[in-house]
Amino acid sequence: MSPASDKPRMAVIGLGSMGYGMALSLLREGFAVTGCDVSADVVKRFVGEGGQGAATPAEAAKAADVVVSVVVNAAQTETILFGKDGVAETLARDAAFISSATMDPDVARRLARQLEATGRHYLDAPISGGAQRAAQGELTILASGSAAAFAKARPALDAMSAKLYELGDAAGQGAAFKMINQLLAGVHIAAASEAIAFAAKQGLDIRKVYEVITASAGNSWMFENRMPHVLDGDYTPRSAVDIFVKDLGIIQDMARTAKFPVPVSAAALQMFLMTSAAGMGRDDDASVARMYAQVTGTKLPGETK
Predict the structure, then answer these.
(1) Residue 183 lies in a domain
(2) CA 22 → CA 12, 14, 56, 218, distances in Å?
């Protein structure tokens, strides 16, 4: 489909598993999209899909009405905005910057103030749904920002999402909602991993355990989504262990500031930290089950130890 002239020109910074799918969703909906990534090979692949390529965020933003930043954390987001070759150097006045990284709400508010002081718009818009939904344009987007930021970004948001939640008129609200999601997601992965490894230790057929639990009250979205990785012995990272080391760490920082106890998510963080320390930080987050198995001498599919 050729890009429509009435659609905003897009740049997507960060063509990882999520960003690449989001960029493809925009292309499919007829947007002109420039992609930028630290991997030149990934950018070349995106150009082969019909997009444009750029070597730096500044170059990508030069021709964009809306920039979508899909990187890992706040530090990378800040570099993309204000670092050398950052988008703030070239992004047009009145253009919008959509930040999709998971970060502390206070940091989202600070970055928004800095960018908005230059006359551009900042939309705090973390995402949920995984790489497959990103590629299908069916993400859940948790967004907050000014009315002007929403107006500028809405066509792109609609193209990338199945559910768009408008959660407030200032940055930080979207980030806070995402952190509540991440608290639950991390706890559920840790609990699911503990359960499947404990089942294996009991000598149970864990495929049958999966069948029973997914039809029972103990099921969770994370159990249903992640435990097939354990059953298949496939820990190719869809979402890595270190993502939850980061996100559950942010939750601890937020909770300490608020003087609010979060003992369950603190325990989950320790499980992810142990898994990372055991050398699996870049593996799939279901590797928490492998950590349990290694500590207890339990055999899981695909594991030789």
Answers:
(1) yes
(2) 8, 10, 19, 32
